[in-house]
Each structure stands twice: as structure tokens, then as C-alpha cells.
Design goal:
Layout lengths: L4 H9 L6 H24 L6 E3 H7 L4 H11 L17 E3 L4 H10 L3 H4 L4 H4 L2 H14 L29
Antiparallel strand pairs: 1-2
Helix pairs in contact: 1-4, 3-4, 5-8
Length: 168
């Protein structure tokens, strides 16, 4: 059975046998392509870009596999996710994205070349971008509750020591 487009893309992009320099060049050029596509998409965030995988690749002047990589990256930020696991060149896909999700996912991916694009300035004010950035960063922060000591008063309010109450 032949590999799906997504499997082919991931085979190239995450090839552990590839030369490190080649992979760096690959990702460097991919990130530039990705940036150019996002610049175009963010110019008209309300516009719903649709078409087959092949048509979108042609529209953005890319190879089909590069477009598959882009679709893989944006999928979680879309209003309706595309069937990336099973798609082929003729699968109809949509790039209708949720701006807030997209911005936060770019922050989560530490893709400053994307969440700092000037196109965001027309979508969100600086304060809104800072708020979204902070929300995303805090969503990954784990805060531990202060541990109750055995001989401290029980937090349930019974007045007993923790070890004699809820700590049994």
C-alpha cells in the first residue's frame, strides 16, 4: 500500500537518518514558505480559502508535499479540521481559521516569525496580542498547591489536625 501524502511529508520532514545540515536547510526554507503563506492568509482573515490540496499548492506556488506540511501545521487552528491523515491531491480542504486559536498556536509553537507578523496588527491591538500571548503561556504553566503538613489544621475547616481528619 502506498503512503498517504501526510506520511510522505512526515517521512521527509522528520527523517532521523537525514544529514543535520540538510534538515536545517529543509526547515529553514519551509519556515520561509510558511511565513509567506500566512502573510497572504492574514491579509484577509475573514476570507475562507478553499480548494483541493493541489489547487492550494498551485495558488501559493508550492509543491503538493509542502502544502501538506502547511495543512498539517494549521489544522488545529482551523474552524473545521481537514482530513489530513487520509487526504490526497484532490481532497477538498479549507483554510478557514480561528484567528485567536491560530495566534495562540503560533505562540505555543514558539514561532515568533509567525506571531510577530505585521499583519496581526490589523487583526488585534497590541494589548489584545499581549493578552492572547499571556493566556497561551499561562495555559502551559502548572501550579502546585501548597502541601498540607500532617500536624497542620485540616483545610476542610473541622478544627482537627490534618492527620486526624482528611489525612487518614
Amino acid at each position: 500500500m502506498s503512503k498517504t501524502l501526510l506520511e510522505q511529508w512526515r517521512g521527509i520532514a522528520y527523517d532521523e537518518t537525514a544529514d543535520k545540515g540538510q534538515l536545517q536547510n529543509f526547515w529553514g526554507s519551509y519556515f520561509q514558505i510558511e511565513k509567506e503563506i500566512y502573510e497572504k492568509l492574514l491579509e484577509h482573515p475573514e476570507e475562507e480559502v478553499e480548494g483541493s490540496v493541489k489547487e492550494l499548492a498551485e495558488k501559493y506556488g508550492q509543491e503538493v508535499l509542502t502544502m501538506v506540511g502547511f495543512l498539517d501545521g494549521i489544522n488545529e487552528s482551523l474552524k473545521t479540521e481537514n482530513p489530513i491523515e487520509t487526504m490526497d491531491e484532490d481532497t477538498k480542504v479549507s483554510l478557514a481559521f480561528d484567528t485567536e486559536k491560530l495566534y495562540k498556536n503560533m505562540v505555543a509553537a514558539k514561532a515568533d516569525w509567525l506571531y510577530e507578523l505585521p499583519q496581526w496588527e490589523r487583526i488585534y491591538t497590541e494589548e489584545e496580542r499581549k493578552k492572547l500571548y499571556k493566556e497561551q503561556k499561562e495555559s502551559g504553566t502548572i501550579r502546585k498547591e501548597k502541601k498540607v503538613g500532617r500536624n497542620e489544621p485540616c483545610p476542610c475547616g473541622s478544627g482537627k489536625k490534618y492527620k486526624k481528619c482528611c489525612g487518614k
